[in-house]
Amino acid sequence: MNQARPCCQQVRKGVEPSLSFFIPFRSLMSQSVEANQVRKGGELKMKRQKGFTLVEIMIVVAIIALLAAIAIPNLLRARISANDALAKSTLRSLSTAAETFATANSGNYPTEVSDLTGATPPYINKAYCGSSTADAISGFWYDCTFGVGSYSIDAEPVTVGTSGTTTFTVTTGGVLTPPS
Asked: Which of 10, 121, 151, 174 could form an S-S bond across to 95 if both were Cys, CB 3.0 to 4.6 Å?
């Protein structure tokens, strides 16, 4: 047997027959309100809703955006500083390799970078010298000028202010400019 809902079968006291059409809707609305309420001891209490409100989510997003606005420039400065330190270190390594080569070869410095990489054992493992941004290493490219009596190696940032701060140079005798 199909049983109809009790609210639709009865005409409530005080409700005129012409308004009986609205009774099911009224009943549905009261059920949806009652879904968020709990009866305890005859007293209605609201259920606690779970989840975050839009305002709470917006506050969290604003805090994250503020922290990112503070942290990102500091991280970029740290990267530039690290690139500068690596360029200086690479120049010192290249200078040490050239000075060691000169010591082993009667005071004659290498005439090209392959003299340093092609020796057995090699003075350096990688040919750092190149003249294009495709040869860049950590934001710097290295320009090497070797001669029998001297050498000069420049480390120039690919983009000043973005990949490095300044051009560093090491010359014969291991003199690094600008000084660290």
From this structure: 174
